[in-house]
Design a protein that fits this description.
Elements: H1 11-20, H2 29-47, H3 52-59, H4 63-72
C-alpha cells in the first residue's frame, strides 16, 4: 500500500508525504515520522490558506488534532493561560 492508495487524499499532499518516506534506520524512525507530519501539515496549511478547518477535513482528522499537531510540531505556539 502506498500513500496514494489512501482514500480521498489530495494528490499534492500525497506527493509531499511520498517524498518524505525513505528507508531509514529504526532509531531515526520517529524523528522522520515527525518531520513527515510537519511537512504534510505545513503543506496542507499553505495549500488551504492556513484554514485549519479545511486542512482537518482534507486530512480526515478533527480540528483539535490539527491544532495539537501544529503545537507539537512547532507550527503554532501554545497559548499561555491568563494570569
Amino acid at each position: 500500500m502506498s500513500i496514494s492508495d489512501i482514500k480521498n487524499i489530495d494528490p499534492e499532499l500525497a506527493a509531499v508525504l511520498e517524498s518524505a518516506v525513505v528507508s531509514v534506520p529504526e532509531k531515526m524512525f520517529y524523528r522522520d515520522v515527525r518531520a513527515a507530519q510537519a511537512d504534510l501539515v505545513a503543506a496542507a496549511l499553505k495549500m488551504h490558506g492556513n484554514n485549519q478547518t479545511e486542512v482537518a477535513r482534507v486530512l480526515g482528522v478533527s480540528q483539535t488534532t490539527i491544532h495539537r499537531y501544529m503545537i507539537r510540531l512547532g507550527l503554532k505556539k501554545k497559548r499561555e493561560p491568563p494570569n
